[in-house]
Write a structure and sequence with these properties.
Elements: H1 5-35, H2 43-61, H3 65-90, H4 99-120, E1 135-138, E2 141-144, H5 145-167, H6 169-177, H7 181-186, H8 191-216, H9 226-238, H10 243-263, H11 269-283
Antiparallel strand pairs: 1-2
Helix pairs in contact: 1-5, 1-8, 1-9, 1-10, 2-3, 2-4, 2-8, 3-8, 5-6, 5-8, 6-8, 9-10, 9-11, 10-11
Length: 291
């Protein structure tokens, strides 16, 4: 069967745009799980929460959902601080963060999902923006703006986060907190406060990514479960604690899903994505850019 060049090029573009979105939804896990060793299984719930906040404000005031998420990001940050403080006081301080802490985040996942179900029901919701139905064409390649705009903002967020963590004292403290908390205490730095702020940052990125999601596809409360495996797969594939690795892993999975959906059907896409993850772990267990 002859494969047209246009089909391949469009699959590449779609995969890269999808990968940019995957980077946005996964970068928070790269911080909480990769850097802080906090297995936040509820991360997708905060993504869906961000989707519904953006949807509600857009429906009432007509404000672009991505702009809503950026304005609301300090609120997501405060929410993350509160959740980590509860997690620390109830589990981490007592050395029970492994199994009981995991159950705590499962509880948050289901509480958030049930609350959204009670408020919004099971119907799918989608935000139609001024650019949702616009597609730019360059030769034979299509660039749907409903994917291009979230991709551009995602890249800005991921790159900005990497520069912030790499070039600031706080960023270096975050990288050190999971390795040597005693050294941080000797420098008069509170490791708990560092982890609290870093975890809050991961929740803020999830809330912002939720606005990208509801622009790209319809959303309903239970859809967050589909992203549990994905975000951890991207994080592990790229390398724990590496923002650049998360971006690279997200782009690879996006391309894998795009080519699989294009040539074999969308039902095979998750299998190929996780097959790529298994191959990477078999040949490089630390991930592509892991330390």
């Amino acid at each position: 069967m002859e494969i047209s060049t246009a089909l391949v090029l469009n699959a590449i573009v779609a995969g890269l745009l999808l990968g940019g979105f995957y980077a946005a939804v996964s970068v928070g896990i790269s911080i909480s799980f990769g850097m802080l060793d906090v297995v936040n299984i509820a991360h997708p719930a905060f993504i869906i929460l961000g989707s519904y906040v953006a949807y509600t404000v857009h429906e009432r005031f007509g404000i672009d959902p991505i702009a809503v998420s950026l304005v609301a990001s300090p609120l997501y940050f405060l929410l993350g601080m509160a959740i980590y403080r509860i997690y620390y006081l109830c589990f981490e301080r007592r050395g029970q963060e492994s199994l009981r802490g995991l159950a705590f985040f499962f509880g948050i996942l289901f509480i958030t999902e049930v609350t959204l179900l009670l408020i919004f029901g099971v119907d799918y919701r989608l935000v139609e923006t001024s650019y949702s139905s616009t597609t730019l064409r360059l030769g034979v390649v299509d660039f749907p703006l409903r994917l291009v705009v979230p991709f551009a903002v995602s890249m800005a967020m991921v790159v900005g986060l990497q520069l912030f963590l790499a070039r600031t004292f706080f960023g270096r403290a975050v990288l050190a907190v999971a390795q040597d908390q005693l050294a941080l205490r000797l420098m008069a730095i509170d490791p708990v406060r560092i982890k609290e702020y870093a975890f809050a940052l991961s929740i803020a990125t999830a809330g912002v990514a939720g606005a990208f999601l509801i622009v790209i596809q319809p959303v309903q409360p239970a859809i967050g479960r589909e992203y549990i495996g994905l975000v951890f797969a991207v994080c592990v594939l790229g390398g724990l604690g590496s923002i650049w690795g998360t971006l690279l892993g997200a782009l690879i999975l996006g391309l894998a899903e795009s080519f699989t959906s294009t040539f074999f059907g969308p039902s095979w896409a998750p299998a190929v994505s996780f097959g790529t993850l298994l191959l990477a772990l078999a040949f490089k267990p630390s991930g592509l850019l892991g330390r």
